[in-house]
Amino acid sequence: MDKLTELNREIIQCRKCPRLVKHREAVAKRPPLRYKGQTYWARPLPGFGDSNATIYIVGLAPAANGGNRTGRIFTGDRSGDWLYGTLHALGLANQPHSISPEDGLHVVHTYIGAAVRCAPPENKPTRQEFANCEPFLRRELFSLPSARVIVALGSIAYNSIKKILREDPQLKKHRFPAFGHGQIADLPDGRTLICSYHPSQQNTLTGKLTREMFLDVFRKAKSAAGIVTKERRPVF
Question: How far apart are CA 164 and CA 187, in angstroms?
């Protein structure tokens, strides 16, 4: 069994955070009308993608009626439409939409994880919940030895991955820039850390994050990772 497969099996079985367990299961029992009758995943979400990825994407946490419903990260909600629509446009995914784990979606050169693996109430994990999930994020990062570019979706994801990177003696005293959309940190070990606003509706519906801004982040990630793929017309 490879490291990622073993890790994902452990993630799925986790029940360390009583508040998150209660919330994810309560949402599954009382879904909104548009999802009534569907069987929810209602467990922690494993990572998804190419085990030989050169780009590692880190989000915050699953959506209560997105990943918590479907069982795949960034799947079944508008944030996922933006992410996979962007990956598809840049030749990193075979289709622009992620609906369910059985929809035939494949991504290349990329792997997607999150700082917290269960859907939190009001999308706000506690400090202890971050701490409980941190070993999963650390092991996921170390299980992707080919990942030379890390894309942090949102300031919380940025701070979470930055904390783990600083455990490396080579990076302990490195001066990381403050979070900002499109901010790039070239690390002494040769890796590149790129910041992006999270593609939540709070950002996309207000225009804080536009399609071109999001595409540009992943164009930079592709370039830094040395990936050459053909672009397509974006579908969001």
Answer: 13
